[in-house]
Design a protein that fits this description.
Elements lengths: L1 H9 L4 H13 L3 H14 L4 H13 L3 H14 L3 H13 L3 H13 L5 H13 L3 H14 L6 H10 L6 H14 L4 H13 L3 H14 L4 H13 L3 H15 L9 H13 L3 H17 L26 H9 L10 H27 L3 H14 L6 H11 L3 H14 L4 H13 L3 H8 L10 H13 L3 H14 L4 H13 L3 H14 L6 H11 L3 H14 L4 H13 L3 H14 L4 H14 L2 H14 L5 H12 L3 H18 L11
Helix pairs in contact: 1-2, 2-3, 2-4, 3-4, 4-5, 4-6, 5-6, 6-7, 7-19, 8-9, 9-10, 10-11, 10-12, 11-12, 12-13, 13-14, 14-15, 15-16, 16-17, 19-20, 19-21, 20-21, 21-22, 22-23, 23-24, 23-25, 24-25, 25-26, 25-27, 27-28, 28-29, 29-30, 30-31, 31-32, 32-33, 33-34, 33-35, 34-35, 35-36
Length: 668
């Protein structure tokens, strides 16, 4: 480890040095340090196969399965590898993505002659991720192919055992069948003991656990289970001897058996034997051990393969083999063979089709969010699938995931530049993601073909205005009026477009026309009030905001803006009342908490101000201004250290956000 560390220090830009050090930390099960080194390697070369492969395994062992899958998918794309594909399938199972995992397993089976080992490995993956039916199916196929192969039946028996009491009868049958082939098979002996213990058959449990420790005398958990069985049968001396043996084995380096239950049970046995002082000592030791264990929320997420607890981690087919696969890392940089390349191509095609089919199914039932994600996944594996871009674009657009719809829509426009419906969707997607220049360029060739849809025309008009083409935007708005029968809603939309362009006189004219046609049209008074506020005409703004509230007394935007104006007019009491009403309707409104906290501080209520300013800073942690007011409030009540900390945070955020927040920050 020291040599590898020095190698990294000597050549920090050398990718292989970081990968080798990450592997060393990984093999030592120090996954945090392994992660740090492998991410440095990937920053230097994101396409390095060994780095991607090792990163996938590190994240898998940390329980970060989504990141593991992403790294492994990249690795298998650069260099095909059976173990990488297997672990990718395993990560997908942990993520409950059974379809892509199944495709990978099917391709593995198709790439070689039928054999029990591959079915057994697949069964193991399904079993360790909780898919017991699929696991049982593959273990059964393995037995059909090689009936005399050791440990297959014990693997199937463990699968049934993990299903609980309903599976015990089938589990016992398979475990006994394994013993007919291999009489000293530890896993079979152990789980027969576990079944007997669960069924309160104490004498039978003793028999199986006695045979277990004979077959595997260095396994602490088997000795502990034997001690439990003796305890249940009131065989105190034998129980104590078995538990002491378990304790001594647990103390050895590398053991992952929890010693606390052993000492706890020894205390109970010693109490039965009348050895009270020793019993108290064991109980105290058990309590101390438990207190030293990390709390559940602070533990690293256990790996379902290697750290499932109990005897699952020490017996049954393939757990050692599987662990070795997880801990195996690629040592060479060799080029993929033609067969491996063909394997990846076929697997990628199958995975792409699987995701595409799932997307089609979800789209047909209007589950557009899921469909869009599945089409995106299909495109990552096989972007050549017929109509994939069309289906993906449509699903993402209908799911209102406009940023995701843009890429497939752009490709569709290049394929069919005269398809007006595709252009409309792409233009709207650009508009919804504030890419107004691109939106205008896409709309421009079809402006005369746009349907008389007010929403679509409005988007096109705004895009044209925002991109600097006022003449074309104005023509679109005129068309809206012509074909919208001069509805107040159309005038409102046009007024809002002018407002966004800071063309306040034109905007006010449109809002007035909307109100002339319908004095109760929502948002018109509010929008007019915002213009007056921008122009510094506070009395007129108050009149418009009050008019909006007379139509909708619960309008949060109107209520908040009215409160803000009242603060500008130094009418603090009314502003506080309004802000409290705003927060009663929208408790997560960060700016309202900020303004209320600032108003309370101005009134001299520092404690009340702190409550709202702290909430504002939690809701909007990237905004600097809440921390400035917090520093003032803390200092006012003598919390100097907190005040200094808040002021430092304010200064850091202000410097970081100075360019982005110029002109947008409320006054201090």
């Amino acid at each position: 480890m020291d040599l590898l560390t020095r190698a990294v220090q000597t050549a920090p830009a050398r990718v292989t040095a970081h990968v080798d050090l990450a592997i060393a930390h990984f093999e030592a099960r120090d996954f945090d340090k392994a992660k740090t080194e492998i991410e440095i390697a990937l920053q230097q070369d994101p396409r390095d196969f060994r780095a991607l492969n090792v990163a996938g395994k590190i994240y898998f062992m940390r329980g970060e399965y989504q990141t593991a899958a992403e790294r492994l998918e990249s690795a298998i794309g650069f260099q095909p590898d059976f173990d990488t594909g297997y672990l990718l399938a395993l990560a997908n199972l942990e993520l409950k993505k059974t379809a892509p995992a199944s495709v990978i397993f099917d391709e593995m089976l198709a790439s070689a002659k039928p054999n029990a080992s591959t079915h057994a490995l697949i069964g193991l993956a399904y079993r360790e991720t909780g898919y017991f039916e699929q696991a049982a199916s593959h273990f059964s196929k393995a037995i059909e192919l090689e009936p005399q192969k050791p440990r297959l039946r014990s693997a199937l028996g463990l699968t049934y055992f993990l299903q609980g009491p309903p599976g015990y009868a089938k589990a016992r049958e398979q475990l006994l069948a394994e013993l007919a082939i291999a009489p000293d098979d530890f896993s079979s002996l152990y789980y027969l003991g576990m079944i007997a213990a669960s069924e309160k058959k104490t004498s039978e449990a003793e028999k199986w656990f006695e045979r277990s420790v004979t077959a595997h005398p260095d396994e602490p958990d088997a000795w502990f289970r034997l001690g439990q069985a003796y305890f249940e049968d009131a065989k105190w001396e034998q129980a104590l001897a078995a538990l002491r043996k378990s304790s001594s084995l647990t103390a050895q380096e590398g053991s992952r058996t929890d010693p606390a239950p052993i000492h706890e049970l020894m205390g109970k046995v010693l109490e039965k034997l009348g050895r009270h002082n020793e019993a108290e000592s064991e109980a105290a030791q058990a309590a101390q051990l438990r207190s030293q264990q990390p709390k559940p929320e602070s533990q690293q997420k256990p790996n379902s393969i290697a750290e499932t607890g109990g005897a699952e981690q020490m017996g049954g087919l393939g757990l050692q083999e599987l662990r070795s696969r997880l801990l195996q890392v690629p040592q060479g940089e060799g080029l993929p063979t033609a067969r491996e390349v063909d394997y990846v191509k076929r697997m990628s095609a199958l995975l792409g089709e699987a995701y595409h089919n799932l997307g089609v199914i979800d789209a047909r039932t209007s589950r557009y969010v899921d469909a869009a994600s599945e089409f995106a996944e299909a495109a990552r594996w096989n972007p050549t699938i017929d109509r994939l871009d069309h289906n993906w674009a449509l699903a993402a657009f209908r799911a209102q995931r406009y940023d995701q719809a843009i890429l497939p829509l752009e490709r569709e426009v290049r394929r069919t530049p005269n398809d007006a419906s595709i252009r409309q969707m792409l233009g709207l997607s650009y508009y919804m993601t504030d890419q107004f220049t691109k939106s205008a360029e896409i709309f421009r060739p079809i402006l005369n073909e746009l349907p008389d849809n007010p929403g679509l025309l409005y988007a096109a008009g705004v895009a044209l205005l925002r991109s600097g083409d006022s003449a074309a935007g104005g023509r679109i708005f005129s068309r809206m009026l012509e074909h919208g029968s001069n509805t107040p809603e159309v005038h409102l939309m046009i007024g809002q477009a002018y407002y966004e362009q800071s063309r306040y006189p034109e905007a006010l004219d449109e809002f007035r026309r909307a109100l002339e046609m319908n004095p109760r049209v929502p948002e018109a008074h509010y929008s007019a009030g915002m213009i007056y506020f921008k122009q510094g005409k506070l009395d007129e703004a108050v009149q418009e905001f009050n008019a909006e509230l007379s139509l909708d007394s619960k309008s949060v935007p109107a209520m908040y803006q009215l409160a803000y104006v009242r603060l500008q007019q130094h009418q603090t009491e009314e502003a506080i009342r309004l802000l409290n009403e705003v927060l009663a309707q929208k408790p997560s409104y960060g700016d309202a908490h900020y303004q209320l906290g600032k108003a309370l501080l101005d009134k001299g209520d520092a404690n009340g101000a702190i409550q709202h300013l702290e909430t504002a800073s939690q809701l909007q942690p990237a905004q600097s201004y809440s921390y400035y007011q917090l520093s003032l409030a803390y200092r006012r009540i003598g919390r100097v250290e907190d005040a200094d900390k808040a002021l430092r945070t304010y200064q850091q955020l202000k410097e970081r956000n100075s360019q982005k927040s110029s002109g947008k920050e409320p006054s201090k």
